[in-house]
Write a structure and sequence with these properties.
about 425 residues, alpha/beta, Rossmann fold, 14 helices, binds zinc ion
Length: about 425
């Protein structure tokens, strides 16, 4: 039998749709599997979307027609949907740069090549020759470039001439980055990241009024998040799936981690119609793509999977507006979080002048934010001219921003900040 269900308020769009799941209504993105808990959804009708004053959210009313099992009484929402309250704002965004991963063993951007060279010297037999070749061409073509700049360069060259050789150079850099991070971050789960993730959750008291946005490829935060018993990760993409099956089992809440440059455990389906993002929990397994020439196939459509790690600029958003791509979805959610947050913590990021794309993306989003109270920059200890230079880079970036006066700096480093309870 088909019963009309009551009308439930549903938040829609980006972050809001993810809040919807915990706030007790229906996450739009999970409606289409035609199932919410034990209730099969046969039809969803949506009212026009309208903004809710003062919250930064847009809302829609959904009328859900559900086919219920015999034990479900019609007219009442399933237990899954009952007794939840809805958050009203994005309180805090944590933006993580490379400096935040240093405490988990990752090299800083400027030290990346040196670390990669050490690895080739020390572990030559354990790494694919692709890595040595990548370092050699890096040294001959742009030895002064840091790893991000060099990745951007080879990516650009490959687009310009499309030869097999330039494509190989891109693959070399991707492998170099993946392998260097893999072999640099071997100590298991980073304790400081674990404390950080748990504290983020404690501060929000389960309201999910936060987002972690990271510019890093490594999985220090991801791994730390798996240690929590209450939530699973939400990568900000509807079609993200774990290779290990349902990662939500027993952990019904979601924890937002938006990875702007992809991740060392992400494999994306190359079929444009599908673009499912497959991820491996707890393993930086992307290097296998180059080492074992392992062909992984999409479990949804059978197409080939490729690692998803993108250069810090020049993201490849597909020309087709129809295709929902992981990167487009993640960047959209990031923007929404930046536009709505009240506090912004920037951790281990020096606002390098070369990172033009991200700088203007961030500033544009913040210029639309009318709730912002404070921007706290958490940096490793700096004194004298280094400190002035660091603050100058922020001053320069924010020179035209209405939020310039809201910048504040803390120089105890990420670890000390976390250990002291993340004061804001
Ligand atoms: Zn697929």
């Amino acid at each position: 039998m088909i019963h009309p269900r009551p009308r439930w308020l549903v938040q829609r769009g980006g972050l809001a749709s993810r809040y919807a799941r915990d706030s007790g209504v229906v996450d739009m993105r999970r409606v289409h599997p035609h199932r919410i808990g034990k209730v099969r959804i046969s039809q969803v009708r949506q009212s026009p979307i309208h903004p809710v004053r003062g919250t930064g959210f847009r809302m829609a009313v959904l009328t859900i027609v559900a086919r219920t099992g015999s034990h479900q009484s019609p007219g009442h929402p399933p237990a899954y949907l009952a007794n939840r309250t809805m958050p009203t704002s994005v309180e805090r965004v944590y933006l993580l740069g490379a400096g935040s991963s240093a405490s988990a063993g990752a090299p800083l951007i400027k030290d990346f090549k040196e670390r990669a060279e050490e690895i080739v010297l020390r572990d030559g037999s354990r790494v694919n020759p692709l890595m040595g070749d990548a370092i050699a061409s890096w040294n001959t073509t742009a030895s002064a470039a840091n790893v991000e700049e060099y990745y951007v360069l080879v990516d650009l060259l490959a687009r310009l001439n499309g030869s097999g050789q330039s494509q190989r150079a891109v693959e070399g850099v991707r492998y170099l980055i993946a392998k260097t991070l893999e072999l640099s971050m071997v100590g298991g789960i980073s304790e400081i990241h674990k404390k950080f993730v748990h504290k983020v959750w404690d501060i929000s008291q389960g309201r999910r009024d936060f987002a972690i946005i990271t510019l890093n490829w490594d999985i220090a935060v991801d791994n730390a998040a798996y240690t929590h018993s209450q939530f699973s990760l939400d990568y900000g993409y509807e079609k993200a799936r774990s290779f290990h099956g349902d990662p939500d089992r027993g952990r019904p809440k979601l924890f937002s981690v938006l990875k702007l440059h992809g991740s060392l455990n992400w494999w994306v389906c190359q079929n444009e119609e599908c673009q499912t993002l497959w991820y491996t929990e707890g393993e930086k397994d992307v290097p296998l793509y180059w080492e074992k020439e392992e062909t992984r196939l999409c479990r949804t459509c059978g197409s080939i999977l490729q690692p998803l790690m993108v250069p810090p600029t020049a993201q490849k958003f597909e020309s087709s507006q129809k295709a929902l791509s992981p990167m487009r979805s993640i960047w959209k959610e990031t923007r929404e979080a930046m536009v709505n947050c009240r506090d912004l913590a920037i951790i281990g990021y020096s606002f390098p002048p070369t990172d033009v794309q991200f700088r203007f993306f961030l500033l544009e989003a913040l210029s639309n934010n009318h709730n912002l109270r404070k921007i706290l920059v958490i940096s490793s200890p700096k004194i004298g001219s280094r400190r002035l230079e660091f603050e100058d880079s922020y001053d320069t970036a924010f020179v035209q921003s209405p939020h310039r006066q809201k910048l504040d700096f803390a120089y105890d480093g990420f670890e000390a900040w976390v250990e002291s309870g993340m004061p804001f």
